[in-house]
Protein 1
Amino acid sequence: MKKLFIIIISVLLFSNLNAQKNTNKLLDWYNKDVKSDKTFGVSTEKAYTKLLKGKTPQPIIVAIIDGGTDVNHEDLQSVIWTNPKEIAGNGIDDDHNGYIDDIHGWNFIGNANGDCVHWDNLELTRLFRKLDAKYANAEADKFAKDPDYKLYLEVKAKYHNKLKEAKAQYAQIQEMYTKMQASDSIVAKFLNKKEYTKEDLAAIKSDDKDVITSAAYMKKWTERGITMSEMKDYLKQVGAQVNYHYNLDFDPRNIVGDNYEVNSSPYYGNNNVTGPDAFHGTFVAGNVGAIRNNGIGVNGVAGSVKLMIVRVVPDGDERDKDVANGILYAINNGAKVINMSFGKAYSPQKKFVDSVMRIAEAKDVLVVQAAGNDGQNIDEIPNYPQNRDANNMIISRSWITVGACSMKKGKDLPASFSNYGKKNVDVFAPGVELWGCEPDNKYGSASGTSMASPVTAGLAAVLRSYFPELSAIEIKDIIVKSAVKYTKEVNCPGEGLVKTTIAFSELSISGGVANLYNAVKLADDIMKAKKK
């Protein structure tokens, strides 16, 4: 769901990303070492140079289950998985896996005509629509003990509050953007040029009050590194909430043409793995496996991977059926690591996902999932998919959930937006202002547990590449046990001006930050012990 990466836009508005873009030494901070570089990265480079040099890795397929990926990106193209048994463009299912021309993966939110779902509701909206049809005129005392009625009252209140908030925010941002447009027009006319700097703005002198006011307004945004284009993009993001996410009259599932509450067949969709908006999936793919040391772009964590692209996430909440079938596709087509940088507050067909996660464990596949960006304790407030069944029992031992951290030790080590949980978050990893790939051969900065998850998936892929004898369950155990522990008090993630503190060790099972160097050392020790 977009809430897992809306943090990208929030950072864009409220911090100066240009400062990050121009500080080259920080661009790949997630690959750096906490001791030698004084930066809380995962020690990627240290692991390669000190422990893995001269060793031969086995190529690993990593599935990027996301919202679409630019498979032609210059820093990704040569590491994108290509189905070796499929002939491109012949309209035939050459490998007989049920998917025609699945060259680089599959898109489960589309149809055979090539149409794709772009926007969708949140699960909250879908639930409210369904339950409201049943309970809108219900007598409270008659249904007081009905669990679905209790759920209805919950989602009804939450839905109306969220819609109200979204409309208010949309109106506010629209007003800001309109004022920005008007101010920009006045300043550009006064300076007689469309492009101008903060120095140009500071030098403006005029008796015209409108010019001075407009220059001051534009100076404020320029100092924050916010452009007209970026503000327009943010307005579009917020507008999507009103027009699609919380719009009861909007339902795009007719594009797919199925009953998403019934999972009788996984064979639907098309081979358009890029989709209408490939920003998020492209960024995630780059964190995992952008081509290392090629002199351009960024260095992904994993250096010997093929990235299988599976599209299940719209601009809105993913549907359980699509998630389940996306995971199943990845398993059946050779993925040994799966990254899932998405999540939502409700999961009506959770059983679909749970069943394939058990298959993942049985087939020796490691699944890495973003913990979510609500600043919540997911031991108390679930974020789905969740590695717990109805009896609160673990579903899969090869499923790892990842929170996000910043680059520095201290109270702000955990990202303020990151979900956490001593029982349900396994480890933290870099997820604040990471540099990565964007569509059309571009690069930029983004934050979120959506970024922390692929860093960890990349780490897992390295382990699976160099230690293929180790199982997915063993790899997860190694990642958790080898995390760099941090026991000091930190700001507990979440909103609010008054921050509460908590020991970082209480935010996850591992109590630490994933570390490739430590993980490789532990994996090597385990392999030596096995050979004795």
Note: The domain at 27-118+269-531 is CATH 3.40.50.200 (Rossmann fold).
Protein 2
Amino acid sequence: MMHTELIASVPELLRRQARSRPDKVAYRDAQGSVTYAALAAATANLAGNLQQLGIAEGDRVALMVPNSVAWVVSCLAALRAGALCVPISYDSVPPEISYRLLDSGARVLITTDERMGQLEQILKEAPSVERVILVSRGARAAAGLRYEELVAKPGPTAPRDPDNIDDASFIIYTSGTTGRAKGVLLSVHSMLWVTVACWIPSVNLSEADYVLSPLPLFHSYALNISVLSILALGASEYIMEKYSTQEVRALLGKGEFTVMPGVPTMFHYLLEAAKSDSEGRLPGLRACISAGAIMTAGLNTSFEERFGVKLLDGYGITETATMVTMNWLGGTRVPGSCGLPVPGLATRIIEPGSGRDVEFGEEGELIVRGPNLMKGYYNKPAETANAIRNGWYHTGDLARSDKNGYLTITGRLKELVIRGGQNIAPAEVEIAVSGFAGVMDCAVLGAPHDKLGEVPVVFVVQRPGEAVDAQSLIAYCRTQLSAYKVPEAVYFVDSIPRTGSGKTMRYKLRELLPDRSVRSAQVDKGMPASAIKA
């Protein structure tokens, strides 16, 4: 049964929860918590004050605040004022902040007083930003409008509380793994459709759950499951400011939490940290959810065997308001697969170029169509038309399907390494490299080659206290991969740069390649370990 009654406007959901469970904690962080009644009042107050500051329907409000209750209140208040919320990572560097403010044309920026020193020059170059609202953080007190005051007292007018859930409400900037980010326009309808079609049936997410969320809220995955789904269901959540393996283990050890969403890297580090412990269970936790990047079958199996908790992985993208496929708590799971298409979402796998549907088991580009599709890219009609053709969004991801409909993501069309005319999916090589003793993390990309055009090379993070011999690693890969897929070079680094959702930023790794073409199998242990810090 689809709980379509949960697909409602944010003001309506707030009213429902404030009536039915006023004293229940909705969101909590390390500094405090907010009940559903207090959440309804705080968002109404801030929305009315935003309107007093001149925010009109359709204006953009940028939000650059750490994961917190204040983040959630600010986001929901912007929607109640009729504005579009533009989340920006709190860890963004000046060029990224400047681009997002200029591209979105945001009129108000909500941030913290500790960031104002860095933002002064940026704001001079972003003329659309007329007002800055400051969340108090740290010892420094910058002059300006205070978030704490604006949520504490009602504005001169009631919030607009628009009820058209099909209008765009968010501009979510894509990960930008291959270049400059695009602003994806998502509606409340598209987001909450994922709640009722994916999270409720596949994970049995309900009002009884207490969710531990270490996800970055500026990302669509977290915005969907960690903000809007919690509100729609009337559940409770603890919001971590940042992921920390030590802190996650301490919090889960209390036995209070029932569900934890994350990305593969988080679960990998949890598993690594548990190897030195005698305790093998996570009390109270009934399910973990992984999305944002490909999870290897080995990690999934090892995690479940070690902790006795289901680790359900799926495949999602910003342009579809997160999830496209998902594994379920019950039923069959295919090792290495990212599950079945979310109910109501149509998927096809086509041959790039011809557009013909491929046979079961054949690799092709995944295209999707459904109620969760984006409205388009903000102010980018050409890019929108290229991405959505005849109603189908072309993901750019390579996939194959078995006869039962289970999808496996095999790589990225734009990230393919083309070695002498032969296509190599980085994900396939990464799975092989990850199986070698001592490899904690890795990423593969194509490096220029004088004769073959490009060849695969691998960046490797070694496990603490373990040394990986590069020649032995290459020899191992020869036993796991066809000869043309074996990496031609190995570079050792401290960490793999990833986006908040766990996707590898290969373009940053490309900047670290030596200024030379790869001519034959070689290894390089001279890569500065400090060159990339995630």
Note: Confidence is low (pLDDT under 50) at residues 519-534.
Protein 3
Amino acid sequence: MGRLKLCKLSNREVSRRNLLVHPPEPPLDILFADPTNSIYVGKTRIFHAPFYWSYENVANPHIAVVGISGSGKSYFIKTFLLRASYVWGSNALIIDWAGEYKDWVKQTNGKIISLGKGSYLNILDLGGMKPYDRIKQIVRTLELLTDIAQYPEQRRLTEQAIEKAYIQGKFKMDATDQKDELGKQLRPPTLKDVIKILEEMSSLGSYEFPAELENAIYRIKQYTKSGEDFFAQQSTVSLDEIITSGLVDLDLSGLPDETFRALAALTILQFVKEKMRSVGWTSKKGLRLIVVLDEAWKIAKEENSDAVMIVREGRKYNFGIIVASQNPTDISEAIFSNVGTTFMLKVKFERFLDYLQGTLNFSRYMRDEISKLGVGECAVNMAFTTPTPYPSTFLLDKIEGEEPSKEYFLDLEGVLSLKQKREVNMAKSVSFLKEDLRRKMRQYGLTDDKVEEVTKFFDKNNRHMDVINFVIQLERYGVGRRNISEMLKDSGIDDITIINIFGKVDMRKTDVTGRDISQVVVED
């Protein structure tokens, strides 16, 4: 039997012991918002309190989502969009960089618009703006995507040519109402008209800096070449239609490269912002529109991009942006510092955790928990509008979607070193969400029938597959080791284990099964 001993303690010593502290969760009145005006996400880890997301108590309705591949990032976004449509009747526009959401949108009877595959977007469309204002946006976009800012004369020539194209089209430069004498809506010029103006200027031979003029022409021509003039023809995409048609996927995967995709995304964001500006904020429940930018690093990182500007402007408009990425450093600090809410799923690398912790200012305890999160588990950071005595970052047990998230497991038992096997906490398998795994395989060139074959193998074996068999199967289908290695790393498998995996694969292929491969072990 132990004994109690009375002793004197100073106030300072008592305070160090933290006998009574508030747990790292906000109170229920913050977590449990009105279910008819909020989005249910999941239950908190400590008190299992239901968390309903609302922008009422935070700086703005904009959201950042980060997490490694397979952590449940896209599953959260899909769940959020579906519930927002049920609760608020929100429209959703997914600016889909890699075509990741296309199949899901199709399954939900949403609308697919594929730029580069038959659809066009004229970047000289006004979208309800004055030509002078639209010209400023176009030039700023070119500054983000090209080196034109380094050449003031080329920038001036380009700006003047765009202005002249509008004037030749009989547009009133400081007006939003653009109609001809008969009251018919004017047809906007295109980049091809801009090129024509610059080439006519060049043909006169009187311009004193011909090299500057030729370079200005060359820069714009990359967007007007036959077969790549996706932004230099009259639009087949209706802005009013894509922001009022429920769930819409703007598929950019058919465009040639990152620059073309970024040009499309920036143009759409500019049009959406102006449309929402003209409508204005209303006190009506919910959000009229939710725009998703997933893996859009080209425009989410630059400080002067429209994505950052919209987040900084907060509640001005009746729509919210969801910016998502596997790599937090691909998202500008200005976005993390200004979004109302950040959802952090599993984050693997120390430099990513450093970046998040430095920007969002959460505790060391929270940092350690984020590094250990499983599929669908997450930490939430909320930028409250007023100072609060409770933590702004807390943990959720799991994101609870419209249907259970199905996980597939790669078993590692046969490739772990003796040292790893002795470690009690060493994971014996890694997991993927089913749809994330299918998406990854498609990205690496597998056809739908091959993806189905791999999926069926998992389903037949209670959602498990030996990692060696998995790698052999992918190699048979033509997936290179670099891509396979990237996939395994994204799932949290370390380099030493990956080396062992490929070694075992090579042995099995050559039928060297009687001997065990030497494990590659790095000792402390």
Note: Confidence is low (pLDDT under 50) at residues 512-524.
Protein 4
Amino acid sequence: MDITVGELVVRYLQKLGVRHVFGIPGAHILPVFDKLYDSDIKTILTKHEQGASFMASGYARCSGKIGACIATTGPGATNLVTGIANAFMNGTPVLAITGETPTYSFGKGALQESSGEGTAVNQNYIFRGVTKYHKLVQRIDYLPHVLRSATSALYSAVPGPVLLSFPYNVLREKVDANILEDIETSKGRSSAEDCTIPLEGILELVRKARHPVIIAGYGCVFSQTEGEIFNFCTQLNIPVATSLKARGVIPETNDLSLGVLGVTSKELAYRYLTEKADLLIFLGVSFGERTSYNWNPALLNGKKIIQVDINPAQLEKTFEADVAVCCDVKKVLNKLEGALKANPIEPKDTSYLPYYRDQYNHSTLNDEDFSLISYFLTKLHEHLNGNAVIFDDNIIYMQHYVNLTKNRCYFPNSGISSLGHAVPAAIGAKLSTSKPTLAILGDGGFQMCCMELMTAVNYQIPITVILLNNSSLGLVRKNQYYNYSGRYIACDFINPDYACLARAFGINYGHVASNSEADMVIEQTDFSSGINLIEVMMNKDGFPTYSSGR
């Protein structure tokens, strides 16, 4: 049966399991929207295409499924870039569908053309560095190859975003619907599927080590390895530190948890690694700038290193490992579990851990400056019983004041780390979960994305925004305080009246300037079915003490 390419695109989305597509229509992408009209896919009209790409990414990160966004040609496509770049840096499978001017107008100065012909913007060139696969589809004869390539990138062991751009006239051409039958969407294909695992080498290093430590990264979350890590570390009594993105892969209340390893975190993991550890076992962790304390050699010096990662580009990227394994973390841990049954290893002595916990497992933030946010987040976490999905653009306060016990519930603004991410990401995520969904961000970031709250209102998507109000770009102001003698420039601003703004949006508002107000707001807020804006007042001259060196 012949159908239009526009309908084929919709059927392709359905085959990928897409149930929501975020975006804004325009003339050149209307052939797809027209076919979405008759489909079971729900379209979410956003206020800006950047919000659409953040929503798709939030949906994908929370659900573990493919997120989808859609835009017209020219500015519609270019507005997607930051959110797509964020997905690329996070390894998030997001499919972006964009329109394009008709092929017969290429190079002639068509309105909003982005074909790259003549003086037109080259959309494919713009997206080339932030996608796993991208294609301007100018002919239908190679559509099967394009769709197979796109699917492979979305479902790969190291996934990422895909961009498919369709000229208007191509979307209206007819094509055989049966070409979708050959598109394979089974998950888990991997170039490391048949990897060789040097079990004896790994076990020998673990056996000889007195004080090994596991550093678990997002690869453990992606491969759903929580149970295997818990079994391995408890069987051998090995402490576990996590990267920021892997929080909750082992409950942070567990006696073996060292919490987050990273420049914005508490001192516990850093102190233990530098003063005690003799073997570091990196599992699916990139050891980037934050986790590595700007690649501080003190973390690695004098230690044996085992590194496991499914992405060969991560292996020995910043350090030399004694054993480097390109393989899925889950597969390696399952093999180790079997080997340990045949050749057990004595559990390690962790009698010294209480000392480190007593000395260094505390916030280094000034109590006077951050007592309110500490109180608010602690009480909020208790009220929700840790059963919430949180998108956090700020990250530092959640690290210091809240212990997480589950993963895939906390999503820090990592990757490209764009301001204005949390609100749209939380909106997208809420469509995949029944849990209360929160966005935590500062007032600077909020003003970059606040209109997306009306998207939540339009579709009655219940989220709660925790707005940290210090009337400044806090990170910039902190760096100017520590590194530029307090010469503040382009970091302070006047905020609107957020109570009035909430009323204009038609959403609930809460104001927190004291512990008593925090108690009242938490008690009165409907986190499950309401759309809420909670403003928490902060001291603009209270600065975290960590330094990024910039």
Note: The chain has three domains: 2-182, 199-360, 367-537.
